[in-house]
Amino acid sequence: MNWVHDVEFIQCLYIIAFALFIYGLMGLTGPRTAVRGNKIAAVGMALAVIATLLLPGMGNWWLIVLGVVIGTVVGVPAARNVKMTAMPQMVALFNGVGGGAVALIAWVEFRHSNGFDGEPAYVAIASLFAAIIGSVSFWGSNVAFAKLQELISGRPVSIGKLQQPLNLLLLLVAVGCSVAIVAGSSSEILIILVLVAAAVLGFTVVLPIGGADMPVVISLLNAFTGLSAAATGIALNNTALIVAGMIVGASGSILTNLMAKAMNRSIPAIVAGGFGGTVTASAGAVEGGTVRSTSAADAAVQLAYASQVIVVPGYGMAVAQAQHAVREMAELLEEKGISVYYAIHPVAGRMPGHMNVLLAEADVPYDQLKEMDEINGEFSRTDVTLVIGANDVTNPAARTDPGSPIFGMPILNVDESRSIIVLKRGMSSGFAGVDNALFFDPKTSMLFGDAKASVGTVIEELKAL
Amino acid sequence: MLVQNLAVLVLAGFVGFAVISKVPNTLHTPLMSGTNAIHGIVLLGGLIVLGLGVEGTLNKILLVIAIAFGTINVVGGFLVTDRMLGMFKPKPKAASSQATDGSDGEVKR
């Protein structure tokens, strides 16, 4: 059985493993093949782990088992129990620990080889690159997690004009120490400085970013972690790490770009921060308007006599866990012969596709879910548009007010429909911290209260009609 | 070795672009979570460095943490993606209103 420990055999297993990754990801391109695709990728991962354990000279088995057991005990229940609404921060957290692993491995590599003594320069460079990016990704993801979990304020935290120079300084410290290490210094304080500077950089880059931009940031950090994994692969001369890491780096970049485009924002502008910060205060274009509130009974009557209704769900619907009630209401309306669609903005919720997941969970058939470009022409033909916990993605200021911070962002043209009912907890502004002119539109009536309770009352009223 | 690895790196980048750019909007969240699970492959790095022998307690502790982190990333990532994707199965009601070949495909799986 010596051949199983043959390095070339193990390399072949790696090739099969990353072929499975690629094949699995191809499966993710359609809802029908996606579950299988994910499983195929998981099989690839299992194969890669087994192949690695077969490497000649493997030891420290107890410690390996210990690490894997701890990881499983923490990871499995977290993944099993997390609510669908909390998915973005869960992904941020999983992404963060990946980055943390990269940074730790780079640190041990440094210690183990005595400051990369006797190693080729590229090993040192790749390891240090991994250390910087991994550390940024770990701390950045944790900040993103804390913001989305509302452990810290989701609002942009501004450090003022000092922010850019500070970030630049931190980057220079990390890179400078790295250069010193590559040049031959083996003092451990340098690698610690690299890791700490990168960690603080992770904080200062993500902290000022407003909650609305958070999905883009998580996606960016996801791509970063992928790249750092690829760099670790270069340092360790491991093909599986290089291929898998690079695929994630490439896909993450595409996804980040798609998301940024959907919000009409450039990635550098997002990373520069300050979205919805102090600028917003001056954008009070809707001052002095009046807001009309309505009751569930009136809303039910309005809905019952419509011929077409569009539901615009947002993160507020998810927070209130109202998606099941919304689906029930939609079914009641359909029984009355009213056509019901759901208008999904590309960045509705806190991740692209987040709303689709939540509505799919509530058994909404996915042919009723319409993307922005598909549905925007329909609003003018719609009697009632029901905005449930969505805000910024419906704000007409994005089209009309060049002074608004969200000007230029593609939005759902909700204001074109004949009447609008907005379900909202109160008059607070959206995640971007911008007032919404839609709420002051004479066609709009507001139904204040918890979305789930409100929809529940509307359902009762509809049944009673 | 470096040149070969760089070649692999560049090609993998293009494969990533080619495969991913076809993913529909609806599946972006599961895709992010799925690729997230895949970069948990750094677990292998921890296994290699620890398994092939390091000295010192601190090194070992750091690597056990790294392996635990990597495992959380992999196991958690794939499980969460699976849960999300499980919700995308067409519902009986939706299947009846769609073309019949769609529901056939589901039965076979």
TrEMBL record, chain A:
Please give the catalytic activity noted in the UniProt record.
Answer: NAD(+) + NADPH + H(+)(in) = NADH + NADP(+) + H(+)(out)
Note the InterPro entries from the entry: DHS-like_NAD/FAD-binding_dom (IPR029035), NADH_DH_b (IPR012136), PNTB-like (IPR034300)
Which Enzyme Commission number(s) are on file for it? 7.1.1.1
Keyword list, A-Z: Cell inner membrane, Cell membrane, Membrane, NAD, NADP, Translocase, Transmembrane, Transmembrane helix
Residue ranges occupied by any NADP transhydrogenase beta-like domain in the UniProt entry = 11-460
Main location group = membrane
**Which top EC class applies here?**
translocase
Q: Where in the cell is it found?
A: Cell inner membrane
Q: Which Pfam families match?
A: PNTB (PF02233)
**Which ranges of the sequence are coiled-coil?**
none
Q: Does the keyword Translocase apply?
A: yes
Transmembrane stretches, by residue range?
Answer: 6-25, 37-55, 61-79, 91-110, 122-145, 166-183, 189-209, 216-235, 241-260
One MF term in GO for this entry? NADP binding
Which function does this protein serve?
A: The transhydrogenation between NADH and NADP is coupled to respiration and ATP hydrolysis and functions as a proton pump across the membrane.
The Swiss-Prot or TrEMBL record describes its family as follows: Belongs to the PNT beta subunit family.
Alphabetized PANTHER family for the sequence: NAD(P) TRANSHYDROGENASE SUBUNIT BETA
The name this protein carries in UniProt is NAD(P) transhydrogenase subunit beta
* Organism from which the protein derives: Labedaea rhizosphaerae
UniProtKB/TrEMBL annotation, chain B:
- The question of whether Transmembrane helix is a record keyword is answered with yes
Q: Which GO terms describe its cellular component?
A: plasma membrane
- Top enzyme class, one word, equals translocase
Annotated NAD(P) transhydrogenase alpha subunit C-terminal domain residues: 6-89
Enzyme Commission number(s): 7.1.1.1
* Gene Ontology biological process terms in this record: NADPH regeneration
UniProt-annotated location(s): Cell inner membrane
Question: Which reaction is catalysed here?
Answer: NAD(+) + NADPH + H(+)(in) = NADH + NADP(+) + H(+)(out)
Instruction: Outline the segment boundaries, as ranges, of region: Disordered.
Output: 90-109
Keywords of this entry:
Cell inner membrane, Cell membrane, Membrane, NAD, NADP, Translocase, Transmembrane, Transmembrane helix
Gene Ontology molecular function: any one? NADP binding
Is Lyase tagged as a keyword? Answer: no
Which positions, given as ranges, span the membrane?
37-54, 61-80
Membrane topology listed for this record = Multi-pass membrane protein
Under InterPro entries, the record lists: NADP_transhyd_a_C
Q: What does this protein do?
A: The transhydrogenation between NADH and NADP is coupled to respiration and ATP hydrolysis and functions as a proton pump across the membrane.
What is the protein named?
Answer: proton-translocating NAD(P)(+) transhydrogenase
